[in-house]
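dumping this here before i forget
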Amino acid sequence: MDPQKTIVLALPRGGVPLGIEIARQHGLRFDMLLSKKIGHPLHPEYAIGAIAELGEPIINEKEMRRIDPVWLQQEIQSLRRQMHKRRALYDQWLLVQRIKGQTVIFVDDGIATGMTMKAAVQSVKDQKASHIIVAVPVVPENTCQDLLKQVDAVAAVDIPRHFLGAVGAYYRHFPQVEDKEVEQMLSQLD
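structure:
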């Protein structure tokens, strides 16, 4: 990998610790790309879509038919505002990285449905990244197969055929990474 043409993009907050370590170990540039799940209005944990800060939303077409379009637009605007606020919080430590012609390595703490990762991937495709790699500790086999239709490679420690339903189930200890922890990690970047 050419360090001048490769960037590690972590999906915050969970992907930040691993992303920083991968960037450090390989002498690569580090940044983050914010991507948020669009949760079902009645069951917020159930993803009906996702949106990345630099792209357009991706929506599960089957769910789209059952969702109030006014609610959906309001939710998308709310998520954009949340991402804008979080980006402002983190940007004091990060430079905005150019994506065009770069190899992008996406890092997260794991993938379940893949919606937020797919939105992130689409956003860097739209910016003309030359290659896209997804690196995660765990991703369900069916989600991995879906991602491989959009990216050049998926690197994962575990690709279970029968996913346990949540990324946290694959960790002994899975605390939520808080904004303050991310800020502290970013402040210590070289």
